[in-house]
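Hello forum,

I keep getting stuck at the same step: I have a sequence, I want structure tokens, and every attempt I make locally crashes halfway through. Rather than fight my setup again tonight, could one of you with a working pipeline run this one for me? It's a single chain of 678 residues.
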Amino acid sequence: MNNPLLTLRDTPFGIPPFDKIKTEHLIPALKSAIESAREKIAAITLSKELPDFHNTVEALEYSGRSVSEIAALIFNLNMAETDSPLQKATMEASGLLTRFSNEITLNRKLFLRLKSVEESGNADRYGSAGSQLLRKKIRDFILGGASLTGKNREKYEKITEELSALSLRFEENLLAATNEYELHITSPGDLEGLPESVTESAEAEAEARGKTGWVFTLHQPSYMPFMQYSARRDLREELFMAHSTRAYRNKNGNNNSEIVRDIVNLRLELANLLGYKRYSDMVLEDRMAGSTTGVRDFLEQLLGASSVAARRDIEEVAAFAKAGGHRGDLERYDWPFWSERLKMDRFRMDDELLRPWFPLERCEEAILSLASALYDIRFTHRPDIPAYHNDVKVFEVTEASGDHLALLMVDYHPRSGKSGGAWMTSFREQHHYNGSDIRPVISVVANFTKATGKRPSLLAHNELTTLMHEFGHALHGIFSKVPYETISGTNVSRDFVELPSQLMENWAYESSWLNTWARHYLTGASLPGELMDTIMEMRTFNEGYATFRQLSFGLLDMAWHTLDKPFNGDIEEFETRAMAPASLFRDIKDTCMSCSFGHLFSGGYAAGYYGYKWAEVLDADAWSLFEEQGITSKNSAALFRQQILEKGGSEEASTLYRNFRGREPSIKAFLTRSGFSR
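Reply #2:
Ran it on my machine without issues. Output:
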């Protein structure tokens, strides 16, 4: 009873008591929650009552509420604020949860009760949400090995436990490999080309490490500006090689090569065990794309549509680089530098030039104000509510009427215990329980440059779009209005989940919105009109290249997950062949993206990375409605909230989109916006 996690719902809004939680509390709390859930599941299984939606489907859904919340806490902390003891606890938790999940889905009596409800049609009385919940539960059981017996059942349990552990080891190795490298510069001459804001951050990093000079790391706020602006090609190459060999050619044991091989082979073995030829077949039958063939056709369509633009982008940057004194072929580590210089030459603007107009605090304020105006909601800073780190801010989100909607936590800056990139997650999903609407606890995590002693945290425009992207996901969780956690918020088809996030990015390219808040952090001056116009013009700059790059990731994903026999070859060679149709540069020996591709091997996007482009087609089509009715149209926003954001996965994604747009999605708006249809 001294464990604060055992009284989770006694805290304000049910938020985890971060100020009281210690690592040693996590596993005992999880074990207690699992044991309680086991008792509830046993009661369902042993019930003498005829199976119905209430005593079987709903009862199963509610049985693991505490397990879900404690598991979310553990994994979220491991991503955002980890250390060695927490990593060990997370590994133990992963094993406990996998075994518990297997207990459920391999429970034949429980599965037969669900099937009985399905055959009776009892779930239909609970509307589309009830039908979707039952459908998802039954699919989870089938994919969870419910039909397996004997040795196949034992094999399933072993595979799933191994996969769970391997994904965690992949992420741990990647974080360690990212943290262990630094480029330490002591000569000012080696800083040629770097803007003052970049060198200031590097100087602060060096000071934090007890060193003189400047330190650059493989974390994105340090890595990308160096690659874009450093005139020292040799140092760009060094940093690029360090980044591209993370957890691959690693001398300190953080090598993911065998883990990648093991994961793809175990996924294939799992799919075969469940009756599928390929892992992608198993995953994609429940997505909007529908099948492996559907995804391949989609990728081929976009490759064809963007091919001319992609090759034109490469040729233009290569010609510009040659005119600027570059000798030899344009390499991958040359692209960020010369494309940024071409952008500056063509538009008289680069990312650094825009940063002064986008101080992080004003960006945050503007995004919250936009959401408030569109959806009639309010955000109130709640410093009285504890968070898991001092960097984290907590907001209460309410309706205009004052009714509570959610808690939103924002965590903006890199730390040694924090994974790279940006993401939205939740510590608790929205759902109904005992007649109450349990509201969510949402978190947005990023890795933006910290303030220095000389200037605040300033965002590049692409970092502004990143923040808006993750905030779009947050709105999906905040507005959820669904009875069941399993289908609430962002628990939708993987190729549909990016629609709200990518739609949100569109406002970052609208002068009528930017002009209301973008101010120079020193002078307070508005963003000049010519810069505003240029931001809009730059949206299609190198879009062909960017699309090809994304498609190359999708091709790699599909290559790994359409294997129909175990892979024992060379990972680097396999990757090169897989990405070749969308490759625009020569391949550099000893680099391998797969070993650091967290989306695929630790992030839940296996056989689903194409979904970013799929959702981009949806977002462009959805945005065209806002363009027709006005980008601050409350009618369009209300329709999007009611038909998409509130619905979660309570209906099929294609149905939700048709209800919002009044028709099937069209690729036309995407091709026009990307500049491919000219």
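The first strand starts at residue 183 and ends at 185. If your local run keeps crashing, start a new thread with the error log.
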